[in-house]
């Protein structure tokens, strides 16, 4: 088993459509792989897959070790990029030691975890019995992990391969919940004397709403709402449509709105927007240097119908008022984000609705519920209907973990320095696994990834070499 073989398998995976909720081609790929290598495999009703490899001769008494990755990927692309995630392979380049998808997500989260499992299953490594678990829809709600039935896998020790910092061993993660707010509006005719302008913010880095929420990057949805909120002070303004962000677990990189104002005021609005873009670029010059904006005259088919004024004002006010970013830092682990909220997206819906998606995370369950309450209260005060998805639990660290000790000692022996033992603000399926299988001993590690959940996602190839070497050593030394 080596890093080159892992990359070869991952390159095959980049050709397979596997957006969350549509993992069927990936599931079939896994089942076909098992059949090709004469390995036992099973699939549950949800689409989760387990592939089992028996113990090597002489290692029959070693306990079963479970390795786990998720089948799906976040499908994001830059505006104007022609790419169909239902059929097009991911386009990537290798530059300066990185494997990069410049215009889309790469899917190394968690395709590299899948590839590592498959390379291990087909290898001649001297191991005890292995079970490789591949769950579905991790990115949109951990549906596969939630649906796991007792007995689907049998091992009591699990290595999650969904972490993104080589040299770091993760033993805990945040729990989370997604909150949805729906605004209903009445149609309002655009005044004949008004002129329409389309305003866009784009070029922001975005990123993972767990890993990157503390990096002070620009949230284009909230920043566009900030401009519109200020602009309402200058006189009547009609909102035709607003759209921004995409996935609940990604920071919004792009946002746009179409507004209508009097002909006399249009020039002033454009001037203020240009000034706002300059100010925004200065504010985020360090954390998000490429964020920018532009305006254009708008002549779309919907140019004569606007959102009623009261709803538009409440919507814009709520998008400004709702918290985005870090709410609290951990009091137990220095530097760890404890609680946060991501204002993920705003979309025009069917039947005269506007839908806002937010994602709350916390390593403290009561704090997770409180930030969700705060978000709900904000939108209810603005007149929206609010719903929450099922929450997922966090993963409490176990510093006495047996697999942690094996992994720690292995890394130190291989590379001559100690790995960092950490918890992560992002959500991992480990919390759900522990809820369903209380006796599990778990750890999570992986190669270095950057820019996950956003176009430009990349894999550090040197870190992948170390990760694969470490994984192979841990699996062979496990007893």
Oligomer: single chain
CATH superfamily membership of the largest domain: Zn peptidases
**Gap between N and C termini:** 20 Å
Count of DSSP helices?
12
Largest sheet, if any? 9 strands, antiparallel
Strand content: 25-35%
Shape: elongated
Based on CA atoms alone, the radius of gyration comes out at 24 Å
Spans with pLDDT under 50 lasting ≥5 residues?
none
Topology-level CATH name of the largest domain: Aminopeptidase
Describe this structure as you would to a colleague.
There is one protein chain. The chain has helices spanning 3-13, 24-36, 108-122, 138-141, 143-147, 220-231, 263-283, 309-321, 365-381, 402-415, 430-436, 461-477, and strands at residues 40-43, 49-53, 65-70, 93-95, 98-100, 130-135, 157-160, 168-173, 175-184, 187-189, 194-202, 238-245, 255-262, 292-297, 305-307, 325-329, 337-349, 353-362, 385-388, 420-424, 441-444, 449-450, 458-460. Strands 9, 11, 12, 13, 14, 16, 17, 18 and 19 form a 9-stranded antiparallel sheet that branches. A 6-stranded mixed sheet has the order 1-2-6-3-7-21. Strands 4-5-23-22 form a 4-stranded antiparallel sheet. By secondary structure, it is an alpha+beta fold. It is elongated, with a radius of gyration of 24 Å. Helix 6 crosses helix 8 (309-321) and helix 10 packs across helix 12. The model has no long low-confidence stretch (mean pLDDT 96). It is built from 12 helices and 23 strands. It has 2 domains: 3-174 and 394-477, Zn peptidases (Aminopeptidase), CATH 3.40.630; 177-388, Alpha-Beta Plaits, CATH 3.30.70.360. The two termini are 20 Å apart.
